[in-house]
Design brief:
Belongs to the TRAFAC class dynamin-like GTPase superfamily. GB1/RHD3 GTPase family. One of its GO terms (biological process) is endoplasmic reticulum membrane fusion. There is one protein chain. This protein is α/β, with parallel strands linked by helices. It is built from 24 helices and seven strands. Helix 2 packs across helix 6, helix 4 crosses helix 5 and helix 10 runs antiparallel to helix 11. The chain has a seven-stranded mixed β-sheet, with helices on both faces. It folds into five domains: 256 residues, 3-Layer(aba) Sandwich (Rossmann fold); 146 residues, no CATH class; 71 residues, no CATH class; 84 residues, no CATH class; 38 residues. 60% of the residues lie in helices and 6% in strands.
């Protein structure tokens, strides 16, 4: 009994892997006894191109062949395997379903790519069966199929050296030297065009594939010649395949098939899908180009640049709908899936093109809504409405205005989100609100401070000028009364702002500190005038200058004590006692001793029980001021005594009474002579008039009162 090939279907037409059949085949051909020393030869090519016939003659197998008398149809479905008879080493032959079959049609090419990739993955030699007249053609020569299979194989499996044997069927008169270069060039172009892994970017085709070409005559017309050349070709498979066994040979064929079936890269479009893709894309691009130059669109775009356009959304939706409808009519007869996908791309491209104009419209809406808020807020505040309530109402009205405008600009075909623009409007409103609030609060603060300054500055100045024992008590009463009134009015004004409690308390505290600051400033100003109050006095001749000097110095010391510190806290202090005991002398001789004795009490920069911030004049400064005061008042006193003496002399300008009596007795004769001679009387009268006029003109009498 002769050797059998045990032909078995490995993968059926639906892609199911025949696990049990493979196990029976392995046992039947004793493949386990071969170890790793066996070869795998497969064949692929167009349907009804004589693949099974070639294998049966080449390897003595019994694959089912097409009956030419019954017409051309699909004979092999899926993948069949058999053992080559009489070939060493052991050779497993795979017969693949033909490509480009009428039964599967142009929409189902995925299975063809899957079985082709499976053959490349496990075969040592892949025979590519093709008609001689198909050389140089795209589809008939299986170029797209090989390109896809090569690319996926490089990604899914570790590349190994495989022989690609192109078998040219029904050879014509064209010499092989012209046919073979064309095939090799096609394979090289396919290899160069595929996307390779990073590690094999620059790898040459020859490192992975041995490309060989052979030709056979027509089986039907030259059967004997065909058989002779097949017999010659058979000799190439004897001991010509070195036992190369890459690691994936040890991997289950079932696992390899599972990996291939799960890969989606092989699910490429059929011919009509490719045509639909090209045409629908051309139509879509043409519509986009026309949209860009559409007069209505350009007019709308220009109008938007100038300002808000009423009915923007409706107008733009009509323009877009016109071109989308044209696309639908022109692409109606192409593949639905492609047509829909390209329409979505057209719609997306058109929307992207007009989106900037839509954004500009949103900007106009935002600007208008913000302007409305500003105007409404201004009018509300002028009408006397509370600030916080006015802001709430105006904000609500402004956002409502924006939302209504948004309905007018909404484009039917788009689902654009305007929330960011609305959020920007809300931030702008908040920013303007904060600005107006700050200005209003500053105005309220300035008004309250102005009223406080007016209420405190003048009265405090008067109280300090008339400094006495109760000066600071009066100032404290004035401060409490005015600050209480100011805080009450200020709090009432702030209520409409609905401020946070912390902010409210801070503003009240600042107002109180301002009031203290007004008093402190006036106190410091008046403290600088503490030496002036005893210098502007007019001395007369009836005053006791020394008694007045002592009284003035005592009053000046009290004044210095008043101005030494700010006393708004109603706390007792010992400043006046310290100054009196240290600076007020008991007699002229004790001046030097008194100042020296005050060194210990006044040799400090702070007062006892007085905080530094309330100190107006430090003890050391008081000591210096008192020295200056003493030196300046000594000169003033000397001037006052001189003025008093001059006044006394000017008041007694007539001669003594006895001199007047003597003049009357001794000048009696001369007086009688004047009476008897009227000319002398007239001359004397004129002389008196002239002299009196000169005295009045030059104020001579006043000058004489200050001494000769």
């Amino acid at each position: 009994m002769g050797e059998e090939c045990f032909a078995t279907q490995l993968i059926d037409g639906d892609g199911a892997f025949n696990v049990e059949g493979l196990e029976r085949f392995i046992r039947a051909v004793h493949l386990a006894d071969c170890g790793l020393s066996y070869a795998v030869v497969s064949i692929m090519g167009p349907q009804s191109s004589g693949k099974s016939t070639l294998l049966n003659h080449l390897f003595k197998t019994n694959f089912r062949e097409m009956d030419a008398f019954k017409g051309r149809s699909q004979t092999t479905k899926g993948i069949w395997i058999a053992k080559g008879i009489g070939i060493e080493p052991c050779t497993i032959v795979m017969d693949l379903e033909g490509t480009d079959s009428r039964e599967r049609g142009e929409d189902d090419t995925t299975f063809e790519k899957q079985i082709s990739l499976f053959a490349l993955a496990i075969s040592d030699i892949v025979m590519i069966n093709m008609w001689c007249h198909d050389i140089g053609r795209e589809q008939a020569a299986n170029r797209p199929l090989l390109k896809t299979v090569f690319q996926v194989m490089m990604r899914l499996f570790s590349p190994r050296k495989t022989t690609l044997l192109f078998v040219i069927r029904d050879k014509t008169k064209t010499p092989m030297k012209y046919l073979e270069p064309v095939l090799r060039e096609d394979i090289q172009k396919i290899w160069s065009s595929i996307s390779k892994p990073e590690a094999h970017k620059e790898t040459a085709l020859s490192e992975f594939f041995n490309v060989e070409v052979t030709a056979l005559p027509s089986y039907e017309e030259k059967e004997e010649q065909f058989k002779e050349q097949v017999a010659q070709l058979r000799q190439r498979f004897f001991n010509s395949i070195a036992p190369r066994r890459p690691c994936r040979r040890q991997t289950s064929a079932q696992q390899i098939w599972a990996v291939i079936r799960e890969n989606k890269d092989l699910d490429l479009p059929a011919h009509k899908v490719m045509v639909a893709t090209v045409r629908c894309e051309e139509i879509a691009n043409e519509k986009l180009g026309r949209l860009a130059s559409d007069e209505n669109w350009l007019e709308l775009k220009t109008a938007v640049q100038s300002g808000r356009v009423a009915g923007f959304g409706r107008k733009l939706s009509c323009i877009l709908d016109f071109y989308l409808s044209e696309y639908d009519m022109e692409a109606a007869y192409f593949d639905e899936g492609v047509r829909t996908a390209k329409r979505e791309q057209l719609e997306s491209g058109a929307l992207n093109y007009v989106h900037s104009t839509f954004t500009a419209m949103l900007g106009h809406l935002r600007s208008k809504a913000l302007e409305k808020f500003k105007n409404d807020l201004e009018q509300s505040l002028k009408s006397g409405k509370a600030f916080a309530a006015a802001v709430r109402d105006c904000t609500r009205a402004s956002l409502l205005e924006f939302d209504r405008g948004l309905e007018d600009v909404t484009v039917e075909q788009a689902d654009w989100d305007a929330s960011k623009v609305r959020d920007k409007l809300r931030r702008d409103i908040d920013s303007h609100t904060a600005s107006v609030r700050t200005a209003k609060l500053a105005k309220l603060k300035a008004s309250s401070e102005s009223k406080l300054t007016e209420a405190l500055a003048g009265p405090v100045e008067s109280l300090l000028e008339a400094a006495g024992d109760d000066t600071w008590a009066s100032i404290r009463n004035l401060y409490r009364r005015e600050i209480e009134k100011a805080v009450s009015d200020f709090t009432s004004s702030l209520s409409g702002f609905e401020l946070e409690q912390a902010t409210h308390d801070t503003m009240i505290q600042n107002l109180e500190e301002f009031a203290r600051g007004v008093i402190e400033k006036k106190a410091r100003d008046e403290a600088g005038k503490v030496l002036i109050h005893t210098k502007d006095r007019v001395w007369t001749g009836k005053e006791d200058i020394r008694a007045i000097t002592k009284e003035a110095r005592s009053a000046a010391l009290k004044l210095l004590a008043v101005f030494a510190a700010i006393r708004l806290d109603d706390k007792p202090d010992k400043i006046e006692n310290a100054l009196s005991s240290s600076l007020l002398e008991q007699g002229p001789v004790s001046q030097s001793r008194s100042i020296e004795a005050s060194t210990d009490l006044l040799a400090s920069s702070t007062w006892e029980e007085i905080p530094p911030r309330n100190t107006l004049i430090t003890p050391v400064q008081c000591k210096s001021i008192w020295r200056q005061f003493k030196s300046e008042t000594e000169y003033t006193i000397t001037q006052a005594i001189s003025a008093q003496e001059a006044h006394r002399r000017s008041s007694n300008w007539l001669p003594p009474p006895w001199a007047i009596v003597a003049i009357a007795i001794l000048g009696f004769n001369e007086f009688m002579m004047l009476l008897r001679n009227p000319v002398y009387i007239l001359g004397l009268f004129l002389l008196f008039i002239v002299s009196y006029a000169v005295v009045l003109q030059f104020n001579i009498l006043e000058e004489f009162r200050h001494g000769m």
